[in-house]
Amino acid sequence: MGEPSLLEVEKLSTHFLLKHGTVRAVEEVDLQVRTGETVGLAGESGCGKSTLARAILQLVPPPGRTVAGRVRFEGADLLELPERELRRIRGSRLSLIFQDPSSFLNPTISIGRQICDVITAHGDVDFREARQRTVGLLDSLGIPEARRRFGAFPHELSGGMKQRVLIAMAICADPQLVIADEPTTALDVTIQRQILELIKDKVIRGGSALLFITHDLSILAEICDRVYTMYAGRIVEHGLTMDFFKNPLHPYTRKLLAAIPRHDLKRPLSEIRGAPPRLDSLPAGCSFQPRCDLAGPRCLRESPRLRELESQHWVSCHNV
Predict the structure, then answer these.
(1) What average pLDDT score do residues 25-40 get?
(2) Helix, coil or strand: residue 158
(3) Does an H or E element contain 130, and which?
(4) Are 42 and 74 in contact (CB under 8 A)?
(5) What is the DSSP-derived secondary structure letter of residue 20?
(6) Beta carbons within 8 Å of 166's beta carbon, 6+ residues apart
(7) Structure confidence by residue, pLDDT tens digits, 283-301
(8) What DSSP assignment string belongs to 54-82?
(9) pTM of the entire structure?
(10) Of 54, 60, 70, which is closest to residue 12 (Cα–Cα)?
(11) What is the largest CA-CA distance in the chain?
C-alpha cells in the first residue's frame, strides 16, 4: 500500500446484543484510508455501513458495542482512548457528515451557534472570531444571506440548507479525515448534485481525506481513488476504482453495477433476487450464497476470506 494509512481499521466487529439474539452489524472489517485519499464504501441499506462509520468514531449507541478489532487513526487506537481524548479528536481531526440533518442538528440552538461551538471547542479562538469564520463558511457553502441566517434555527431551513450546515460543522476545524455517511440520500436529485459538488470542493480539494459511504456506485466512480463493497456486515471486495468498475470480481459487486441505469445500453435493468439477510440470523457459509448464481456446496458451509486475486484487488468469494 505504500505510505502508512491515516485510518486503519483492523478486524473490527460491532454487535448489538438484543434479547432475541446478536445482530452482527460489522464483522471482522479491514479498511484503510491514506492521507488526502478519497475512499468509497458501497452496499445496500442495512448492510452495516452506517454502523461502521459510527464504530470508527466510537459513537455506536447502546445496546451496540465493539467486541473486537482496532481502529488506528494517526497511529493511535481510538478504541483504547478515554472519552475525553476521543472528544478532542472528533470534530477537529476526524469528523462525520450524517445523512439526516434533522436528527443531528439541535432544534433549540441556532445553526450559527452550533458551528461556532465546534470551532471554539477545537481552537483557541473567541466567539467573535468564530462567528466571522462561520458566516464566511456558510457563505462559501451557498447559503444566501449568511450573516442573517447565522441566527436561524434548523426548522427554518430546507433539507439542502441543513445538509450544508452539517458539512460546515464537519469541516470548520480543518479535519484530516471526513466520513460522509450517505449525505445526499434524503435530497432531491438537483440538490444531491449541489451537495456532492460542495463535498468535492470543500473536502477533497480542501486537502482532507474522505470516506464516502453510499449505495449509489455512480458517485463513487466520480470521486474515489479506491472502493470497498460491504455485504451483511463484511467487506466482500475492494480495489482501485478503475479496476473495481472495469473488472468487478465479487458476484454481489457485479450485480450492483448491473443495476445502475445506463443511457448507452438498450437492456432492462438487472436486479438482485431476494433480500439481504437479517444480521441476527445470517445463513451458514457465505452470507451472499442464497442470492448468488454461482453458489456451490462449499459456499453453503464455508465463509470465504478476503484474498488478493489481482494487484491491489481483493475479493471474498470461493468461485473467482
Answers:
(1) 97
(2) coil
(3) helix 127-140
(4) no
(5) T
(6) 97, 98, 101, 104, 105, 183
(7) 999 999 999 999 999 999 9
(8) HHHTT-PPTTEEEEEEEEEETTEEGGGS-
(9) 0.93
(10) 70
(11) 67
